Amino acid sequence: MEKHPERGSGMRKRDSGEPGSMQPEAGAVYSKRSRSGKYAAAFKIGLQASLEYRLQFVIGLVSLVFPVGIQSLIWTAVYRSSAQDVLYGYDYGQMILYTILSGIVAKFVMTQLEHTIAEDIKSGGLNTYLVRPVSYFGYRLSAYAGSRVVSDSVLIVLVTTVLLIAIRYGHTPLSPVRIGLFTAALVLAAAVQFLLSYAICALAFRLAEISYFFVITGLVVQILSGGMVPLEVFGETLNGWFNLLPFKYTIYFPVNVLNGRLAEGEALTGIFIQCGWIVLLAGAAHAAWRLGLKRYVGLGG
Amino acid sequence: MSAITVRDLSKTFAYYRKQSGLRHSLRNLFHREQLYRHAVANISFDIGQGEAVGFIGPNGAGKTTTLKMLSGILHPSAGEARVLGYVPWERRREFKRRFAIVMGQKSQLWWDLPANESIYLNKCIYGIDEREYRMTLDELAEMLDVKHLLGVQVRRLSLGERMKMEIIAALIHRPKLLFLDEPTLGLDFAAQQNVRQFLKAYKEEKQATILLTSHYMRDIEHVCGRALVIHGGQIAYDGKLSRMSESFGRRKRMKVRFAAFIPPEELHELVRLLAVVRTHDGLTAELEVSADEVKPLARLLIDHDLVEDWTVEEVPVEEVIERLYKAKFGNEGEGDDGEAPGTRQRHAQEG
Amino acid sequence: MSTGLLAKCRAALDRGTDYVRLYGVFVKNCLSAGMEYRFNFWMGIAVEIAFLCAKALYILIVYQTDLHIGKLTPDHILLFIGTYTMMTGLYMGLFYVNFIRLQQYIRDGTLDLLMTKPVSLQFLVSLRYVDIGLPVPNVVAGAMMIAVGWHRSGLPLNGNIAGFAALLLAALAVTYGIMLLPALLAFRFVQTGAVTEIAHSIWDANNMPLDIFPQWLQRIGVYIIPVFLISNYAPKFVLNELAMGDIIWAVAAPVLLFVLVRWCWKRAVRSYSSAGS
Known about the structure:
The complex is a heterotrimer.
Chain A: H1 3-17, H2 24-52, H3 54-81, E1 86-87, E2 90-91, H4 92-109, H5 114-123, H6 125-130, H7 136-168, H8 176-201, H9 211-224, H10 235-242, H11 252-258, H12 264-299
Antiparallel strand pairs in A: 1-2
Helix pairs in contact in A: 1-2, 2-7, 3-4, 4-7, 4-11, 5-8, 8-11, 8-12
Chain B: E1 2-16, H1 22-30, E2 34-48, E3 52-56, H2 63-70, E4 78-83, H3 93-96, E5 99-103, H4 115-126, H5 130-144, H6 159-171, E6 177-181, H7 189-206, E7 209-213, H8 217-223, E8 226-231, E9 234-240, H9 241-247, E10 251-258, H10 264-271, E11 275-280, E12 284-290, H11 294-303, E13 307-314, H12 317-329, H13 341-350
Parallel strand pairs in B: 3-7, 3-8, 5-6, 6-7
Antiparallel strand pairs in B: 1-2, 1-4, 8-9, 10-12, 10-13, 11-12
Chain C: H1 2-36, H2 38-64, H3 74-99, H4 101-108, H5 110-115, H6 121-127, H7 135-152, H8 160-183, H9 193-203, H10 215-224, H11 229-238, H12 244-275
């Protein structure tokens, strides 16, 4: 479904880039304009495709109710049976808030891009990008950004609603600074996750049957990023290790910025670490793709 | 006794118009425009036990739909049919045990296993006893010359070999009635010929009834004695295949390139008695001529020293069908496509 | 009269054994085909192990917080989680691999060929494939959890086991019915991925004993959409928490569900063959 419009836009670009009689300078100017143009086009395509799949998104949201609801009920039972009020450093309200918010934030940052990209690599669809004056990464990023516009707006409305309800039930109101920090943390978390997926996808150059692998990495990432339960559950030793990994900066961190468990200073430090990870992961993804592409071209696609 | 009786069978498909664009897809959420297509419209025919019938028609004519109704996959919108005494779409078990359907593009073999495993599975599904199964398998594999390939994984077989396995799997319960939908599609020439010969032999040995659709006239000519031509969901011709090819197979197309410009009137005047001019643009022309008159025509053209080059071809099947259809349902007055008037009358009678 | 009945019973029995034999051939086929793709086989196992790790998190929480639900101790809860894990494995290996194929059968016309076979179409479609690797980790880990939970809660090893096993079988039948129903939507819609997703997240409600749910949800999950029968009734039986009525329901529910599935299946196939494509 997504393929069709992509191909169309690709054709258009190549056609417009071809006129040979053009002056070099004019050509350069032209290509510059068309560069921003083509990524805008990719963005639009992503947006359109997401509209095409809107029903699926809605159902995805509805199905989010179940795991979040079940987990909340489990935590309710846990807190009811326990003699302590605070478990793993969370009181009951915080834990429920964490469960709900982590479900929503997970939806926000998880890309689901792996299969699309792996498909491009396997089916040779990548070739169409390699022979054109378009960066695959740029293309995917723009299309991805476009595809998130609608769903992310809905998710943000959802987060706001949840927070408003939480505040009504006694959660401390959020300062504007914290909202700003959360927004930054969330956007950066999405970037970390995108780069992470993109880097993992480079494995499709090597592994023949990759879909299983994505299920595993998806699950592991979800557990390690605090998408299932707060990372405190794993104990201090493991958390020491988690600090060295990028995963916690995708779900656990933004959620804890929002629910106020992290002080503003800590949040700021976390944001810097996120930036660091983005640089590192971008480098890693770039290297992995360079290696993979070398192999890909070497095999003749 | 007839194996298949069909009376006024019709199948109408309902479908939705789908327009592209966001606006339309939004509108489709609330209201969809329903359209109908008459895939098969009031067809009737009988096929006797042991008869082999070629089912001919262009794509989308309703061949596959008819086969699906006769094998019980589809329920007709109207009409009746009896196949081996059963109403096919009741899907009785006893009925299913007595026929087989082979669809050229759909496989029932398991890709990763040797063909004999899939065939054995069919043995169990059809409840064939061990001895009979062995015998049939040997015999069929022998006839198709694939005995040595039974233990090879299906995905390692060539397309032709795979088709042969497909046929063995379908015939392992020795059905007396066969529906074959494009069994030779995409096969190379040798494999096509093999399959063709096999079907003929099977029919003669087992007195089996065969209903065969194919894009290749050769398949049908080889296996079948009778043709059922379907076009636009209606039967355009039902009769002996030999008479059908007599009228059309025996007409040829002659494409001629002239050495010099020749005015249309002059050409018409020249060939009037032997051929019909289908197209002519001064330097090239396409003539239709009956097979017996190819030689005289050629001689005539050479004698007048007009020709630089020529080719002689068959009339394409699609065109034959189109004409048969027009002959039966079309308006009689139009003779604009250069059709020989005599043939048309003959066909109108045939149906 | 009675001889007629006898003959009928005999025929039914024969057909039953035919189907069992046929199922044996399915299993054999799947085993040999599975061996073809050893990489996929091991990857399937790896995936299931990853899912097991996620489940282990809950066990961790249960023991860390010394979770008591009503009269249930952490060891009892382990019994429930073990049952759920085992049922998940069986569902994945026996049913899931078939149910996801239905859509493809319809799209590529394989269903047409299957319809001309002289055995039950539902049988062919819903049980044709068996994945051998996929369920292994879950079934093994589930059995271990059950054994540990059983032993640690000091439950006797007597006739209980037979009852437990029988209820697991009933649960398997419930699983078949409950998970096949959403798959039948494939006859109607091109995309059923989202529905499957919802069905699976409801399935995950069995992760914990049903006692954590509010009363009204328990009722729905037991009597209307009997998901809770899948992993709650067998452990509850050994814990002596099932009344006679519950046991009768545990036996009746799969039968009723099967009748419902059969009815829906027939309707779906009928509409398929009268709509066509």
